[in-house]
């Protein structure tokens, strides 16, 4: 017979819901309500955004920053994954989609993890304003909150990224640390080997008493 301890181990821990975005690189996308096209973009990103009951302004700020800075486009030389939507002056179409917070109960979807509409609408509008103030407002488009919409997406690639906001302060600190490390690596790569050598040579001061290696002793050249 199964023990009580075994049954306890089998119980799944409670999950924390967070804001979720499905980001698609597109050649064009549009939103239609009824027979009327309410919004459309050319090349850029189509973002389906789900807001949870536990989301805060920090979650919104994190997602806005990541969406606008994701390197999903090629540069002028055709090098893939090099430029963000802001680097290329492309457009962004945001569509509120509470179904992203779906939790299945058997085969039936449950949406209690999604923020109620009366709270989600001002929160969603603040995300749009944040995105417009961080980029070019005329390039940020959206659908019609709470309406029954048809979203037409021509995915380019296809490229689809799933993005979630951090679940707590410790996650935010870890992500911030990782982002800073990545930025330092990118700066080092962008300088190129010749520039790095020049800077290294400027900082190095050889010891006049050090051996040249002619007697079998090799002195190491290390930066301070």
UniProtKB/TrEMBL annotation:
GO MF entries: D-tyrosyl-tRNA(Tyr) deacylase activity; tRNA binding
Question: For this UniProt entry, which segments traverse the membrane?
Answer: none
Q: What is the annotated localization of this protein?
A: Cytoplasm
Q: Which reaction(s) does its UniProt entry say it catalyses?
A: glycyl-tRNA(Ala) + H2O = tRNA(Ala) + glycine + H(+); a D-aminoacyl-tRNA + H2O = a tRNA + a D-alpha-amino acid + H(+)
Cross-referenced InterPro entries: Daa-tRNA_deacyls_DTD, DTD-like_sf
One Pfam family in the UniProt entry: Tyr_Deacylase
What protein is this chain from?
D-aminoacyl-tRNA deacylase
Upper taxonomic lineage: Eukaryota, Metazoa, Chordata, Craniata, Vertebrata
């Amino acid at each position: 017979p199964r023990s009580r301890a075994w049954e306890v181990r089998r119980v799944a821990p409670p999950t924390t819901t967070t804001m979720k975005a499905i980001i698609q690189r597109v050649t064009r996308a549009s939103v239609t309500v009824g027979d009327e096209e309410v919004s459309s973009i050319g090349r850029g990103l189509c973002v389906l955004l789900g807001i949870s009951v536990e989301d805060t302004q920090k979650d919104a700020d994190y997602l806005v920053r990541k969406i606008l800075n994701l390197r999903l486009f090629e540069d002028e030389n055709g090098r893939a994954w090099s430029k963000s939507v802001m680097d290329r002056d492309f457009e962004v179409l945001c569509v509120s989609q509470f179904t992203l917070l779906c939790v299945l109960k058997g085969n039936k979807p449950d949406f209690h993890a999604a923020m109620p509409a009366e709270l989600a609408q001002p929160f969603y509008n603040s995300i749009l304003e944040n995105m417009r103030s961080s980029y070019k407002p005329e390039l940020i488009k959206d659908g019609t909150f709470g309406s029954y919409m048809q979203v037409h997406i021509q995915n380019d690639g296809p490229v689809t990224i799933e993005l979630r906001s951090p679940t707590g302060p410790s996650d935010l600190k870890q992500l911030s640390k990782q982002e800073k490390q990545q930025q330092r690596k990118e700066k080092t790569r962008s300088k190129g080997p010749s520039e790095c050598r020049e800077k290294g040579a400027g900082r190095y001061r050889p010891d006049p008493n050090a051996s040249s290696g002619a007697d079998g002793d090799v002195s190491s050249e290390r930066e301070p």
